[in-house]
Known about the structure:
248 residues; alpha/beta; 7 helices; 15 strands; globular; LytTR family DNA-binding domain-containing protein; LytTR_DNA-bd_dom; DNA-binding; phosphoprotein; Sig_transdc_resp-reg_receiver
Amino acid sequence: MKVVIIEDEFFSAEKLSNQLQRIDDSIEILAILPSVESCLDWFRNNPEPDLIFSDIQLEDQESFELFRQLPIEAPIIYTTAFDQYALHAFKQNSIDYLLKPIDLDELRSAIKKYENLEYRLLKKGLKLQPEKPKEGFKERFLVKKGSQLAVIRTSDVAYFKSDQKLSFLITFDNQRYVIEQTLDQLMDQLDSRKFNRISRNRLISLEAIHKIHNHFNGRLKLELNPPEEEEVYVSRDRVPQFKEWLDS
């Protein structure tokens, strides 16, 4: 197994390296990277590892910035001293979240989780990481911005909604644009791992989910980022597939 450790504390990186070797001496540590800048340089010039161990607060930025800038497919085990990042980490290919100081048995369990996931996918003829970058998903939208045209990257889209026969694109910085596509058409154009149709009139990004509440009559109530004035629900008939999507 080839791994990369993203960690800006020397002793933490060294300890994790030693723990990994104790668990499996065939684990190959390809790089120890202390900053987002060093990560961007490394991942742009090297094949992805099988698994990433990542601290969150690095010497320059939070490691989430790396995964926002690059479409990294490798699964991630987060290692941090803080628990407030758990929901955000869950959205970033995370298969586990370990709090420092890292317990050897918990680390062993996290690696076992990775190995079990890989085994299940191989039985289905799949891999944790595709051999080639995924192609065919819509990468940007051309929108009208006043008297000008603007290009919005799909990664900047928080959610789509339909209202009175119009479709709207809403970005994470709460800019709203009318688009030509219907939500049905968008379902065929977007990566289903990142976007989910939660109701007849709303299609949301995983990144846009802030909080999830159980609600009356089997529905789920969502708090989104950016927030909406009206209440947002996962319709009852879509709740099972929504939970499966979150847990995939």
